[in-house]
């Protein structure tokens, strides 16, 4: 029985599925983040291997016709040492040639079979891309947490922490967002200066990407509107920057940030365009693998049934 493998490797989680020619999901696997820019390459490949091995449970890897890995941070594989590490992992797993595709390509394919368009990704990181023949040909953003990731979960979390620090430094009355940030950081003191010091310590004690854990607080706090508005402005700007003038193709929104109030604001700012939404990049990776194996008529995979 032939099948293909699709993998969605993000900054915080990795999912893999095995899909047969009829689009039926045969197996699923999950692990931690596998973005080699946010994690060490050795950790990234370990998480990838765990997810792929999970989806292959009970299957013969020799019957896999194609494997597409959509990877945030795929640019890291331009480093020969990192590429060698990933190649060794594919060989150990018994896979043939593995296509590593950018996460915008996989994200776009997860929502539409159209060959051309624009994709806007806002999860842990953010990027917009121009898609031509299902390949990424131009980008806006996507520089990673240190240089960009505007409007992403990292950006939202960082802005939430900064707003809290500003309020503490100015000794202003703390609003809902600031109180939620302090609770999430387990800072428990009524002394503004001590709380300020402790929050800085907590934020700097973890990997920078961990600031994304504060992002959900922005989506629910009643006083977080300005941050949400700014995130939407930045993300909609990335989408427009990636498009050509007068382009009449779909815009695909993908990622946890765009599934909430930021996404609603972005849709309003892109009114008049054909805006689609996808929340499952692993299906895009699997379909691209199916196209590689079975041609343009490949069946789009159905979402796997939820666990009982």
Automatic annotation (TrEMBL):
Gene3D superfamilies: 3.30.420.40. It comes from the Bacteria. Residues 5-289 form the ATPase BadF/BadG/BcrA/BcrD type domain. Pfam families: BcrAD_BadFG (PF01869). This is BadF/BadG/BcrA/BcrD ATPase family protein. It comes from Amycolatopsis dongchuanensis.
